[in-house]
Design a protein that fits this description.
Ferritin; 467 residues; mainly alpha; Ribonucleotide Reductase, subunit A; 2 domains; single chain; 1% strand; two-stranded parallel sheet; 2 strands
Length: 467
């Protein structure tokens, strides 16, 4: 051994492996470091964490599954929620959970998990919990289960994971969870305020507390979010043991709304026209009312997400995003009515579309929106925007411009979604959809029985159903 190496190794090792250093090199490095002019912030993160890649992926897969199931679960309740604000916020939260699932899915693909295997993952125990959570008696109980039990437990699990995993080697997982948490805090805060509003409005708080305890106990009995928490005894009785969960089929509205479903024509529903037919004022108001009434599109796309669950993850994700878009359109319509001087609740809400689509097979219900409704909007919206600009109608020109871009995206994404729902060709699908919707419209009294189903044009359906 040389004298330099001897001097370098003549020290007490601080690791299990000996450290061989040369004093001249260390001194030179210190001198270079001292002369370096920039004092950048030090990175305090330590190396080390509690999870291996395998354990990290196991937990993240479980998080992914909870998020995917929550998006599906909220979709199944969109028809059954009566309260306007809760229905809109649910449309937003469907996407938040689907987006969280997509983020976690991407991270799993980076940790040696095949996307096909991730998408195929199922957990019967978690499914049992979700079904029980969905057996809520009403919307207040739904919010308690989705947000105050599962949502809060997921938030805690994500924060614990961030604290326990290696902050250096597993930085991508930490970033993914931090991005998800950006949506969680406002979502959970809103849910707490909404549950408080229900209680202040007369909902029995003790009933909600009992349901919360029931679901917390059930979640504890399956090992919590991570699956490794100390197990507790399950509740003695489950609602799903008496009656399996089934989604609703009838659109619900709260007591502030006047509703109609016997027609798609607002003038008929109002019993008299507000403006001359085909005048700009009439077209303007119809467009804004149609946006407010896209509350039925929240119901449609949310329901599709539930009905095609596990068919194709990308289709689920796109449906979740479109549901959020439709929630925004509903908000746009509501706010545009206010900006135009109306009380939005003075204008009756059209239920024609949801009444027809609710019990229908998803492929035909989706085709009605995509092939008739959204395409119909794109046929006329360009001229409407041009006219609004000519009239210096800044409100309508502004909102319609954003809605146009959304609808173009929906038509494009709808092709893939329809392909996951049915093997029928476009012509056959369109014909069958026209038949089914005509039969429904006849049953509602929206069109007369002397009309042959094959003579009802796509333009008739676009107007009568009015997406």
């Amino acid at each position: 051994m040389t004298d330099k190496a001897s001097r370098a190794s003549n020290r007490e090792p601080t690791t299990r492996y000996p450290v061989v250093m040369f004093p001249e090199q260390r001194a030179a490095a210190a001198a270079r470091r001292h002369a370096f002019p920039y004092r950048f912030p030090r990175d305090p993160r330590p190396l080390g964490g509690q999870f291996s890649v395998e354990e990290n992926a196991r937990r993240v897969l479980r998080y992914f599954y909870f998020e995917r199931r929550l998006a599906q679960a909220l979709g199944s309740w969109t028809l059954a929620i009566p309260e306007f604000e809760v229905k809109i916020e649910t449309g937003r939260h469907i996407f938040y959970h689907a987006d969280a699932a997509d983020t976690l899915r991407t991270r799993l693909s980076e940790q040696e998990q095949r996307l096909k295997a991730v998408d195929a993952f199922r957990d019967d125990v978690i499914d049992g919990f979700i079904d029980e959570m969905l057996s809520a008696a009403d919307a207040p109980e739904l919010l308690v289960g989705v947000h105050q039990v599962v949502g809060r437990a997921l938030e805690i699990a994500y924060r614990h994971h961030i604290d326990l995993t290696d902050p250096v080697t597993d930085a991508p997982t930490i970033r993914a969870l931090q991005r998800i948490l950006l949506d969680y805090r406002p979502m959970l805060d809103w849910a707490d305020a909404a549950v408080a509003a229900y209680v202040e409005g007369g909902v029995d708080e003790s009933r909600l507390a009992a349901w919360r305890w029931h679901l917390q106990q059930l979640l504890g009995s399956i090992g919590g979010i991570s699956g490794v928490d100390t197990l507790v005894a399950p509740p003695p009785q489950l609602r799903t043991a008496e009656r399996p969960y089934q989604r609703g089929t009838v659109p619900q509205r709260d007591a502030r709304f006047a509703t109609f479903h016997h027609t798609g024509d607002y003038d008929v529903a109002d019993s008299q026209p507000r403006f001359p037919k085909d005048s700009y004022e009439s077209l303007r108001l119809r467009f804004i009312r149609t946006q407010r009434d896209e509350v039925d599109a929240i119901e449609a796309f949310g329901t599709f997400l539930w009905d095609i669950r596990f068919t194709d993850f990308q289709a689920e994700y796109d449906l979740a995003r479109i549901t959020w878009d439709e929630a925004r359109h509903t908000e746009i319509g509501h706010r545009a009515l206010l900006a135009s001087g109306y009380d939005p609740f003075e204008l009756p809400n059209r239920l024609t579309g949801s009444t027809c689509r609710g019990p229908m097979e998803p492929a035909f219900a989706m085709a009605e929106i995509n092939l008739f409704g959204e395409v119909g909007v794109l046929k006329t919206i360009n001229q409407l925007i041009d006219k609004a600009r000519d009239e210096n109608d800044t409100v309508l020109a502004h909102v319609a411009d954003f809605i146009r871009s959304d609808e173009r995206t929906h038509v494009r994404k709808g092709r893939h979604i329809l392909g996951c729902m049915t093997d029928l060709g476009n012509q056959e699908l369109e014909l069958k959809t026209r038949e089914l919707f005509t039969e429904c419209l006849i049953s509602l009294g929206a069109i007369t029985t002397d009309m042959d189903v094959f003579t009802v044009s796509r333009e008739d359906l676009e107007h009568l159903v009015g997406e």
